[in-house]
Amino acid sequence: MTMLPFLAAGWIFLAGVYGMVTSRDIIHAVGCLAVTQSSTYVLLLTVGYRRGGIAPYFTDTPLRTRTVDPVVQALALTDVVVGATVTALLLALAIQIRKRHGTVDPDALTGLKG
Amino acid sequence: MSRSARIRLFWATAVVFAAVYTLACTGLPHFGTAVHPYGTRAVATSLRQRTANVVSSVNFDQRALDTLGEESILFASVLGTLVLLRRARDERVGPPQAGRVLPSTRLLGLVMVPITLLTGVYIVAHGQLSPGGGFQGGVILATGLHMAYVAADYRVLKRIRPLAVLDLADALGAGAFVALGFAGLIAGGAYLQNVLPLGTFGQLSSGGLVPLLNAAVGVEVGSGIIVLLASFLDQAVEVRPARNSGSGGGT
Amino acid sequence: MSTAVVQEYLIAGALLLVAASATAAALARDPVRQAVLLAVLGLCLTVLFTFLQAPDVALSQLAVGTAVTPLLILLTVRKVRRSTASRHDGDERGQEGGDES
Questions:
Q1: DSSP one-letter string for B101-142
Q2: What is this structure's pTM?
Q3: Which of A112, B221, C22, C52 could pair covalently with A12 via S-S, beta carbons 3.0-4.6 A apart?
């Protein structure tokens, strides 16, 4: 259990990159990028976990309670939302490629056109 | 590069990556370790700033400049998507077809839309106290509005969605974050320094700048994602290519 | 002490679920099927983040991962397939715009 979470993050990363490399469809590649991205959240949050710690909120808990690391949570939190808008930007590019080149297969896109 | 060469290169790289990564993991502190120097300091600072939600305190007080960067990425990608998906000259717009919805779905949607919107506002407003804040609340506001699309149809969604106002709100939210940062400079501190009165710990008005920045981000994220989804829905439901469109054409 | 041990078993279980659904989402070839699997992945990640004591991240992952990202992918697929359908089937079908997708 001491290393399993980090290895799981590495596995998710490789699975996502494998999907992107073998992709025949740009939309599919963007989905795989989302999978790859989620590996970073898993890595960050498992690094910040503290055994027996509670979530870092002091609304109704004593101020001396042991909490998990809030810094990595703040990193992951903003990236989840920002990542979704970047995914939208990539999908908009895919729609444009489909309009201008008539295909979404990355292997069929040979060279620059127009 | 050919497809098979690319896949072979991937496997070679993947083996090296897996080996080096596993080696690196053995050097990391164990999972669940008790030593978190940054975390401990962040919690102490957050309590000093009277912000009960430490994650919000890190995002909007201790590391507010980083969040400004993240938020600029968000704004830029919304802007880029809108530019990419604007209606081209050679595209026609067809009227969307009216959908048929079960009465029970319609009723559920009618009840759920205001509840979801209220939940979104609550989560933005309580970001400094409990789990939540501008990023999460904004997304909930945006998805809550789209329940109208599920419950009724596209025309109803278009009627309750003032896109021109939301475009403006997106920019105003991004601008408000930048402008609020100047409060620190005016008070003689650093940019984005939390110089407002901190209030009482655990109260809605605690945390100084944190609730205001949360509200700015909530407006920006909420309107940004509605505008994003609107331009995608527009492309998928309304816009059709012209009959004699450029390459290929009809058979 | 025992609650901490139970917690770690829960985390390990959620991690395996996340790894499995991530692999399935990366290996799915059809973007529509992938969008559904991404929603499942988003849900598994939400559970994992909750067990890791990160309700803030879980909240945004729930809204973004299970709703926004799959919806964007489905809309893009619909747009791309519709323009393919109208291009191949000639003008009279293009008028209606392939509504089968």
A1: --HHHHHHHHHHHHHHHHHHHHHHHTTTTSS--HHHHHHHHH
A2: 0.88
A3: C22
